[in-house]
Amino acid sequence: MNEIKRNQSIGVPKPLVDGPEKVSGKALYSGDFVPKNCLVGRIMRSPVAHAEIINIDIIEAQKLPGVKVIITGDETDEPFGILPIARF
């Protein structure tokens, strides 16, 4: 039979360089970085599956620091699947 070469990687455990950071919760991911002067969008959905949204009160949300605009389904021409398509 063929002998296993000393530098062969198959079947040999490799230390995870970022393992301690990941299991401790200290690892950073792309979502952890926010570029300066970057406008960020969020989509809020109903926490209830298949719920019919009757009314959305955006007054309090508009007062939050950093909020630039709130777009609801009223600003869309037609729905696309479960997400609206905006005019702009």
Give the arrangement of secondary structure elements.
Elements (H helix, E strand, L loop, with lengths): L18 H6 L34 H4 L13 E5 L2 E4 L2
Question: What do you see in this structure?
Answer:
This protein has 88 residues and is largely without helices or strands. It has a domain at 37-86. It contains two helices and two strands. A two-stranded antiparallel ribbon has the order 1-2. It is elongated. The protein starts with 18 loop residues before the first helix and ends with a strand. The model has no long low-confidence stretch (mean pLDDT 81).
Give a brief rundown of this model.
The chain is low in regular secondary structure.
Strand order in the sheet with the most strands: 1-2
State the low-pLDDT regions, or none. none
Shape: elongated
Amount of helix = 10-25%
Structural class: little secondary structure
> What string gives the helices and strands in order?
HHEE
Give a short account of the largest sheet. Answer: 2 strands, antiparallel
- How many E-type strands? 2
What percent strand?
5-15%
Count of alpha and pi helical runs: 2
Write down the oligomeric state.
single chain
Radius of gyration: 24 Å
Mean pLDDT: 81
Distance between the termini: 68 Å
